[in-house]
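Researcher: We're teaching a course module on how sequence relates to structure. For the next exercise, students receive a sequence and then see the predicted structure as tokens, so they can try to spot secondary structure elements on their own. Here is the exercise chain.
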Amino acid sequence: MLLVVVVNTIYLVNMYRVIFIGAGFESIDGNFIISSVAVRSPAEKAGLRPGDIILAVNSIPIKEPAQLDFGINLNSVPNPLKAGKPAIFKISRNNEEYTATLIPSSLMLEAPVFFYIKFVIILLFSFASVFILVKKYRDHSVRIFFIYFQLYAITQIAYTLGYPSLLANFASVIFLYSTFLSGAVLIHFILVFPQPALIYIRFKFIPAVIYGTGLLLCTSFVILYITSIYHSSPEFYYQLVSVNRIVVTWILATFSIAIATSIYQFRTIKNTLSRNQIRIALSGSHHHNHLIVFSHHFPGQQECRKRIRTYSLPGPGRVSHYIPGVARQTATMDRQVFPSGNL
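Model: And here is the predicted structure for the students to work with:
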């Protein structure tokens, strides 16, 4: 419970540092092109539009896709963009060069009410889980459920904070471990709720194997993640991409196993009350499976959907959308044709 409060508080404070410019980028034939611009976003206000080629930011030439991950990653241009601090974009449009002054915003500034409400709701549900634990602390399945819910509350952050800050990295590491292990804990819970599954009684080592695999994968990813922050280079960044494909597979696999285990419990238990309880567990695991996949493939959509009509879609040239919690924010294209000439 305390860990949930601490991690979410760190994230709430650091959301002011997570830059939002409202533009998506992709790399085509060595050119770094604006693929989309969000409505009423800083990018739109600066006069940028889809199809513009980014040549430089703050006089620094753009040579790697990772340099355009302004939001969270330190692999972006040197002297990372800051909310409220003007940045000069040098672009090419119709074979002519222009400059545009963009004033970045932040996720917190774009949707402060959303983040504060989300923070309060997470705390309320965490307190509720503590109440349940106190009432039935002797019940093994309740203790497992309590742990699962705390991990679930942390995974709702859906971001990593790629800053060379001890607190930010502590919160990001806890978020990553929660993401990797929440599915394993859910499987463990379903194996013992509402009564121990036959397969669990026979093979009690199953949870240990799943936990061990999750810890091994997460530790490997965390080492690469921390290394990429303090020794940023394209090589480390692309290694993260390769490892994270295994990560996504692991997340999907654990929650799929959780659903399969719920079905197994439902088919082997004949008691009506227990079967109804399993139905609830099955519904919850299925719902959380979608949430986890949604939050990691489409992070950032919920935060700014009402404010800027932003959609988070995977696309070429953007390494960050493979990394858990790192937002790739692309948006509906603005079809307005800007007048020619200087921006």
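Model: If you want an answer key for the exercise: Residues 71-78, 290-343 have pLDDT under 50 and may be disordered. The longest strand covers residues 31-37.
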